[in-house]
Specification:
Structural class of chain B: mainly alpha
Low-confidence stretches of chain A: 1-29
Radius of gyration of chain A: 32 Å
Order of helices and strands of chain B: HH
Low-confidence stretches of chain B: none
Oligomer: heterodimer
Radius of gyration of chain B: 18 Å
Distance between the termini of chain B: 53 Å
Strand order of the largest sheet of chain A: 14-26-25-24-15-22-23
Shape of chain B: elongated
Distance between the termini of chain A: 49 Å
Chain lengths: 728, 52
């Protein structure tokens, strides 16, 4: 029998980590176990208490806490408590649960950068409110000693605040200046320093204008933008990491004849590793025992599984389909071909490193322009009045007014809104500039197996067979959990077929099922085993006695939304290509089914990426959608890339966007959202520029007061944020 | 204007108290699960007596 299944990511951990609780317990010594569980179905307060109560009542559990935002539970328990027990327990009270690898998760648990930004933002916010309170008093008429006192108090609040809250800007500006470059933070820092110097000087001489409030407000608004930006990406990153954590890296090794569950990292060369049906090979090696079929589609894109018998070489990442296999490891961990390929991708030049973000390209013109304006104002006023104090004051006003408060919010406000929208549709934007790159796309390249197709077979020729054949086939298929058998069973039952009475039913791993029916031997399975000549299609052959075998042909089921996605993209005028590692006829059939005219079959990983490079050389902006290891190079080379959640870890890491659900239809929509997001960003830039065009001449002419600066800064920031919310 | 001698320190202390409170909430992980906290308040598990 032949087929391709993709074990759902959730199916693996449970079947790999079945027995051997004692062995792990001995290993863990006296340390408490921290168990993290993903609970995709919880949604209300009743769920929280039901889960927490069930977990707390489990023997050995010390404490359990549900996090509804992350849909996750963390459990502290005695070392002998195994996650499977808790998963079974939760299942019995009606909650789906999956184990999460604590090692992979711990990276996201403490979002230090986010917390740091939030703290600095809070300090700036509180300081801004207090300074503003004092400033309003000054603007509404406080004079002489009162004004000076208010200015001094403002200084006492603003100076430490700026020293603390402004650190991210100082660091970023310094790191740019040190290598002789400039960025958006250089004029910000210059403005802050100039404002502080000018204001302290003014205050010391009982002047009228101090810009403490403007400086603190500037820092607060900019930090808000940074924090929004950071949070959007932190959410995407933690969701992406949760996907990786679902694949618990545990394997079953056989040592001295005993099955020992081990973390994959502890496997050594020469170890015998047991891989159960549905499990993924943790190491490179060769088969020493067992017969089965292996699905290599994640590595090569082939839909047809390969027959596996002792002596055959297997690579990490392949999936065992039917019978248990024992493998002797020849390469482990970072030495496996899977990792070496993934590492190669990491070195390759990626589409995203070539891209300059809109904010950066704006800063390139903006920064020198602003500094030039401020310098001109200073020199001009100094020559005009020969008064350093006035000149400095005006230069500070020019810098503060031009400072990119609105520009700092223009991009993050829009990307936050757009990412949130796409997140709700099941798309994770992992990279900061992915949206901008997505908006430029005009060519879409799809991989076939696992991307456009779901990896589950579908029976195509049910009506070609007579009732007897179907009844016998159903009887045989029921005896196996092979994906083709399962699909045949479903289709036959749906057609109302009653299984024939058979005896001596047994499954021969790697070949098929056989039984006795009315005194004849009947077999359902691989072509050669049933005495048939294999064809090009995916098929299971049925042999009844000495009659010629008949074929049940299968096609790979389309992923939900695949047709809509391809159709939607074509309607938007995109050029759609299909490049697959699978055989010609299979690819041609799918291309025809979806109406894709340009396709390429039997493509090697290198050919995939070189095709993309060739498209880019023609001037196309390429979006690559793929899931396998054979796609990773192409995913990296493309301008922007999307992979489904079922993709191999390496492929998800290589892509900018991850599709969380099984549905592909959001792809077409996401392009439209990205384009409208870019439209909003450009609009925001225009709003910010317009406000500069009005305010800068006022500042240069020396009419700007701290009140004008505060009004202009706040109103432009609010306008820009509101504009971002208009995103459709 | 004598009232300022009270009002300014009061406003600074109030602002400072707010800031300290905020820092405390950040440090004690109170923003880790906003959605869960919103739902937990509807939970009647410990309505009759506090959690032991």
């Amino acid at each position: 029998m032949t087929a391709a299944i993709r074990p759902s990511i959730s199916a693996c951990p449970a079947c790999i980590a079945a027995p051997g609780a004692q062995a792990l317990a001995e290993q863990g010594a006296q340390k408490d176990a921290h168990i993290a569980l993903s609970l995709p179905t919880i949604h209300c307060s009743a769920c929280i208490s039901a889960v927490e109560r069930a977990l707390a009542e489990a023997p050995g559990v010390k404490s359990a806490r549900v996090n509804l935002t992350l849909k996750r539970a963390t459990v502290e328990a005695d070392p002998d408590v195994m996650p499977d027990q808790l998963i079974a327990l939760l299942k019995s009270v009606g909650f789906e649960a999956h184990e999460l690898d604590a090692g992979t998760l711990s990276v996201t648990q403490n979002d230090k950068v986010g917390r740091d930004l939030l703290m600095r933002m809070a300090v700036a916010g509180f300081a801004m409110m207090n300074v503003m309170l004092l400033s309003v008093a000054v603007w509404s008429g406080a004079t002489d000693a009162t004004r000076d006192l208010f200015h001094w108090i403002s200084a006492a609040i603003a100076l430490p605040t700026l020293a603390f809250s402004g650190v991210p800007f100082y660091k970023s500006a310094w790191s740019a200046l040190r290598v002789g470059r400039s960025n958006m933070d250089v004029p910000i820092v210059t403005a802050l320093l100039l404002a502080v110097v000018a204001s302290v000087w003014e205050t010391a001489l009982s002047g009228h204008h101090a810009y403490f409030d403007a400086a603190v407000a500037l820092v607060f608004f900019l930090l808000t933008g940074r924090y929004l930006d950071h949070r959007t990406r932190a959410i995407a990153r933690s969701a992406a990491q949760e996907l990786s954590a679902l694949e618990v890296p545990r394997a079953t090794a056989i040592r001295d004849g005993v099955e020992v569950p081990l973390p994959v990292a502890d496997l050594r060369i020469g170890d015998l590793v047991l891989v159960r049906p549905g499990g993924r090979m943790p190491v490179d090696g060769f088969i020493t025992e067992g017969r089965s079929e292996i699905d290599r589609s994640l590595l090569t894109g082939e839909t047809l599984p390969v027959f596996a018998e002792p002596g055959r070489v297997v690579s990490a990442g392949e999936v065992n389909l039917t019978g248990p296999l024992t493998i002797q490891a020849t390469a482990v961990g970072r030495e496996t071909s899977l990792h070496r390929m993934a590492d190669l991708v990491a070195i390759a030049e990626s589409g995203r490193s070539r891209y300059t973000s809109l904010a950066d390209s704006t800063a390139k013109y903006y920064t020198p322009g602003v500094l030039f304006l401020a310098a001109i104002s200073f020199v001009g006023w100094y020559l005009h009045s020969s008064d350093t104090r006035t000149a400095l004051n005006i230069a500070a006003a020019v810098l503060i007014i031009t400072c990119p408060c609105a520009l700092g919010l223009a991009v993050p406000a829009v990307t936050t809104a757009a990412s949130g929208k796409l997140f709700r549709r099941g798309m994770l934007i992992k990279d900061a500039t992915a949206l901008e790159r997505l908006a430029t796309v005009d060519t879409v390249v799809f991989d076939k197996t696992g991307t456009l197709t779901a990896g589950t077979p579908e029976l195509t020729n049910l009506s070609d067979h007579d009732a007897t054949a179907l009844q016998v086939a159903l009887a045989l298929a029921q005896g196996s959990s092979h994906p083709l058998s399962v699909s045949l069973t479903t289709a036959a039952r749906a057609a109302g077929i009653v299984p024939a009475q058979v005896s001596d039913l047994r499954e021969v791993p790697g070949y098929g099922t056989q039984a006795m029916w009315q005194g004849q031997a009947v077999r359902l399975g691989r072509a050669a085993w049933t005495g048939a000549t294999p064809g090009v299609d995916t098929a299971a052959w049925l042999a009844i006695g000495d009659l010629a075998p008949v074929a049940f042909t299968f096609t790979d089921r389309l992923r939900p939304g695949a047709a809509e996605a391809v159709h939607g993209l074509m309607q938007q005028g995109m050029r759609v290509l299909l490049i697959s590692g699978d055989t010609g006829p299979a690819v041609a059939a799918l291309a025809q089914r979806l109406g894709i005219t340009e396709w390429q079959a039997e493509a090697l990983p290198v050919e995939k990426s070189s095709k993309i490079t060739a498209l880019q050389a023609e001037g196309c902006h390429v979006l690559m959608v793929g899931d396998g290891l054979n796609d990773t190079a192409a995913l990296t080379a493309a301008d922007v890339s999307i992979s489904p959640a079922s993709a191999l870890d390496a492929a998800r890491v290589a892509s900018d966007i991850v599709l969380l659900g099984g549905d592909l239809s959001p792809i077409a929509e996401s392009l439209a959202t990205a384009r409208s997001a870019i439209l909003r960003i450009r609009e925001n830039f225009r709003i910010a520029t317009l406000y500069n065009v009005i305010a800068v001449p006022i500042a240069i002419a020396g009419f700007a007061t701290p009140l004008v600066a505060a009004l202009a800064m706040s109103s432009s920031s609010i306008t820009v944020s509101l504009n971002a919310l208009r995103l459709k | 204007m004598d009232v300022l001698t009270y009002l300014i320190p009061i406003s600074l202390v109030l602002g400072g108290a707010g800031l300290v409170g905020f820092i405390y909430t950040v440090r004690s992980n109170q923003y880790d699960d906003p959605e869960g906290d919103a739902h937990r308040i509807l939970n009647d598990d410990w309505d009759d007596h506090p959690k032991p």
